[in-house]
Design a protein that fits this description.
elongated, 61% helix, mainly alpha
Length: 172
């Protein structure tokens, strides 16, 4: 769970947010539904928008009656962030944890040495595709994980295969 740093709202700010919510909750939800790729995401996008409003209310310079363009901009930003690919690999965040700060071995295990040598022949992008392919992921899943198109994944996969075949032909 991520840590959220929250500053307490003043009474005037809380009252302003409540007034904005009463005035614009339906239009914000409608805009969120318009921006959502799936109907069930609209409520989440609207809720995230109101959370963002609570964090950045100090940047609203218009009167409350003219706040809809500002809120529409917030909805658009939240919708973009909502569908932005998330990191799917685990990352250690607490470096005081004994397991997270454990040093990696200096050399690979003996049974994977041949695999490591083969991957050394590939570019880092090609090697990443091959490693994910070895885990059984489809080209579409690899593209999602790497934040690339399926075409780019296909090209890297096939360019890496050509490179490995050439190296095998030269060695044999």
């Amino acid at each position: 769970m991520d840590r959220i740093d929250v500053q307490p709202l003043s009474a005037a700010t809380a009252e302003r947010i409540e007034r904005l919510y009463r005035l614009y909750s339906r239009p914000v939800l409608a805009l969120a539904a318009n921006r959502a790729k799936r109907p069930e995401d609209a409520d989440d996008i609207a809720a995230e928008t109101w959370l963002k409003v609570c964090r950045v209310i100090s940047t609203l310079r218009n009167d409350d009656e003219r706040a809809m363009p500002w809120l529409a901009s917030a909805v658009r930003t939240v919708a973009i962030d909502f569908y932005r690919p998330k990191r799917t690999t685990e990352q250690a965040r607490d470096w005081t944890d004994a397991m997270a700060s454990r040093p990696l071995p200096a050399s690979p295990a003996a049974d994977t040495a041949a695999d490591v040598e083969a991957l050394d022949l590939l570019t880092p992008h090609q090697a990443a595709v091959f490693k994910l392919k070895a885990q059984g992921l489809s080209d579409r899943r690899i593209a999602q994980r790497l934040g690339r198109s399926e075409t780019a994944v296909w090209k890297r996969k096939h360019a890496g295969a050509r490179r490995l075949r050439r190296s095998l032909a030269l060695a044999g």
